[in-house]
Amino acid sequence: MKPVAFEYCCPDTLAEALALLEEFGVEASVLAGGMSLGAMLNMRLVRPAAVLDIKRVRGLDTVSINGEVRTGATLRQAAALGDPVLMQAVPLLARALPHVGHFQTRNRGTLGGSVAHADPSSEIPLALVTLGGSVELQSMRGTRRVAAREFFLDVLTTARAPDELLAALIWPRQRQAAGCAFAEIAQRHGDFAIVACAAEAVLTNEGSLAHLGFGLGGVESRPIVIDTTPFLGNRADARLAAEISAAAARQANPTSDFKATAEYRRALIDALGAQVLVEAFENAGKTLT
Amino acid sequence: MMRLKPGSRHRVTIEVNGKLRSGTAEPRTLLTDFLRHELKLYGTHVGCEHGVCGACTVMVDGRAVRSCMQFAVECDGAAVSTVEGLAHGGTLNALQRAFNRHHALQCGFCTAGILMSATHFLAGNPNPSEHEVKDMLSGHICRCTGYYPIVAAIVDAARELRDGDPLHKEPT
Question: Of A154, A172, A190, which one is at a domain's C-terminal end?
Answer without folding.
Answer: A172
